Amino acid sequence: MDTNAWDLAAVIVKAITYGATFGAAGGVFFLAYSHSLISDLARLRIRRLIGWLILVAAFGSLLRIPLTAGSMNGEIGGMFDRGLWTMIWHAGEGRATAIRVGGLMIVGAAVLFNRGSTVPAILGAAIAATSFAWIGHPHALRSNVLAQILVGVHLLGVAFWLGALAPLLLVSRDRAPSYITATALRFGRAAVFVVSLLIAAGAGLLWMLLGTVSELWTSPYGRAVSVKIGIVGCLLSAAAFNKLNLTPRLRIGDSQARLSLRRSIWLEIILACAILISTATLATVLSPQTLG
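RE: above sequence
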């Protein structure tokens, strides 16, 4: 594998780890605020989804250690170099991985084996989602504590929003329109507040990383961030369409609204995947040090 191949593999694994972790955490949040609104079958499907996502997230998290070692060595054999593993583990990746896997294990135990343990499940989900705050570009900033707080808030918002898409899609398969309408309404109300916090935290962190707005179009890192912002804008537009157009149609019993909602959610999932890939690329290939 050459450098480009290693970078590509790292981006793919990182994006999958992001998606699975946020999906599992967001699924827990979704069950917590919509448990009484959805059918038993939908709850069962969402729990199963969370279980699979936990396995994918844990595997992806652990795979990043040998993958990083291979990238540093430049050869396949480097993936099995224990010395590199130790160095990577102690450099911060190990701590983040341990925290993430620990949070996922709490979620798994609470959701899959003790269905009434809402508080432990939410705690585990929050730990897993914010584990990415322990590594990454914010640690290069002088205001490290503030940056970590902003990243933590941003990550929780991402998990709440993006992690709800698959559960919403599962609920939309329910034959009872009342379940779909009530769930969409509750998610929409909560999402307005959560997404506002997500955007505010992201903007604050971006200002700390870039320093000036002009870097968004004058530096490689800034231009990559601009692409991500554009995708986020598309996702926000799709979400606004759901809230302002499709949800009112569901309330009045429009027979075509449910099909339109499913199509819109699929579009949001595709856009969410694009955001995760762009984020993984920023975290792996580029850095704020490439400014100007």
